[in-house]
Amino acid sequence: MSDDAARLTRRRLLGGAGLVGTGVVLGAGGAYGVDRAAPGDAPGTSAEPTVPFYGPHQAGITTPQQSRLVFAAFDLTTSDVDAVKAMLGQWSAAAALMTQGELIGPTEIRPEAPPFDTGEAFGIGPQRLTVTVGFGPTMFDQRFGLAARRPAALAPLPQLPGDAVLDQQISGGDLCVQACADDPQVAFHVIRNFARIAAGTAVLRWSQVGFGRASATSRAQQTPRNLMGFKDGTNNIKVEDADSTSRFVWVGDETDQDWMRGGSYLVMRKIRMQIEGWDSDSLADQERVIGRTKEVGAPLTGRHEHDLLRLGRRDQHGELVITARGVGVREDRSERRSDARRDEERGERRGRSRRMPELSCDELAESDPAERQSQQPPGGQAT
């Protein structure tokens, strides 16, 4: 391995951002590449709350979830390690500025040339922006000599039971970027300018816009509802639970790669909801599918949202009250581990609703082709 390649793997990479149907390695907090903007380089001028860019962990992983998301995967088009490091360094410096509500460069000094910043977020403020970057499995192939630095836990996901065939056009990627904010234009601004900075080094592979919160990540947040109208994320790990985040979110001494300590892993999965069919279903059947009441969010075996699931309980006819079918398959299995305290494997969910069409600007023309997915049964199917 070259010295440059070795140095790249030791950088504290901004982690996060997943791949549809693929795992992503999330490095600890810090600069993406060789350059790092000093805290004084990006003084915040807005009185609005900001999320620190630098820290022991990347922001955007256990940060209380914002209302808007723009997520993108990039493919590298070069095998030049120095070019990749330079791009990551520029991303890092730009992110440090944008999370403070600043532009990434002056706009009025070169009238004969394109401005450094596209300008659509000017004056909006930071809006609790977080920018999180992850490395996909393909980053560790032969191009950069990083195979020996690839964590053993970072492997392509197999086909999961009940899933449709993964669409490779909206899966994978060498690098992924997750931009979250309380304003959609602020999040969009990140991906748009990252794509411009990456020109000649990386190209956009696919992108996804998300809105709302489909899971709570803090005890200060009420459990939100998904587009099926049910509470989602009742048993999600909360940021205030330091023991659980340390055990299930952040990588520790169990890793085979020292540089991964303090980082994390993320998988992005899309669940397509055909809400027209769902909306015509009876309330009783909807609740049987989910395994919870619609209004309160209580399990069908309890009265309150946070009551323990009683998965073996049967009704007066001898039938299981909570059955493993439809969406309930996912809910039962995840909650069986958490509510029954069988929690050897858990993770934090940061759910979003999504809309179509996706990003619609010339620089991000390679938008998500999710409309080409085959018909799925009502209630949703992971893709």
The 3D shape can be described as globular
DSSP E strands, number = 9
Distance between the termini: 37 Å
The largest pleated sheet is described as:
5 strands, antiparallel
Strand order of the largest sheet: 3-4-2-5-8
Q: Rg from C-alpha positions?
A: 21 Å
Order of helices and strands: HEEHEEHEHEEHHHEE
> Approximately how much beta-strand content do the residues carry?
5-15%
Taking pLDDT < 50 over at least 5 consecutive residues as the criterion, the unreliable ranges are 1-22, 33-46, 326-342, 355-383
Mean pLDDT over the full residue set = 76
Structural class given helices, strands, pairing?
Answer: alpha+beta
Number of domains: 1
Helix share bin: 10-25%
- Contiguous helical run count: 7
Structural write-up:
Strands 3-4-2-5-8 form a 5-stranded antiparallel β-sheet, covered by helices on one side. It has a two-stranded antiparallel sheet with strand order 1-6. It has a two-stranded antiparallel sheet with strand order 7-9. It has 383 residues and is α+β, with helices and mostly antiparallel strands. The chain is built from 7 helices and 9 strands. It has one domain. The chain starts with a helix and ends with a strand. Helix 2 runs antiparallel to helix 3 (184-197). 44% of the residues are buried. The radius of gyration is 21 Å and the shape is globular.
List the helices and strands and how they pair.
Layout: H1 3-10, E1 23-26, E2 68-76, H2 81-98, E3 130-135, E4 175-181, H3 184-197, E5 202-211, H4 242-248, E6 264-267, E7 271-272, H5 275-279, H6 283-290, H7 327-339, E8 353-354, E9 381-382
Antiparallel strand pairs: 1-6, 2-4, 2-5, 3-4, 5-8, 7-9
Helix pairs in contact: 2-3
